[in-house]
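Memo to structure team: turn this sequence into structure tokens by end of day. - J.P.
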Amino acid sequence: AQEARDAADAPSLLGGLSGLGDDAPYYLPRQADFAGLESMDLEAAEAMEELAELSERTLAEHEIGELTDLPEIAEFPEDSPELAAARRRHPSHPD
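Reply from structure team:
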């Protein structure tokens, strides 16, 4: 019982969520809280630039006509007899 009373009297570790008045302290991040974020943004920007350069180089090396002349691939090969029979036996088959 004493521990419960002590816990109720102690300030909250969650930033004063128990009593949100006008004079509640605001959370102000320290400079150390932002450590490493600048380098992550820089690395992401560099990676995006490299990707853009690579795509420009790839498109410049290959003409659009070359990319459309690729051999066509059959969408679905012929069904095996077993698969066709299984489809006919399935309850959703229209027959």
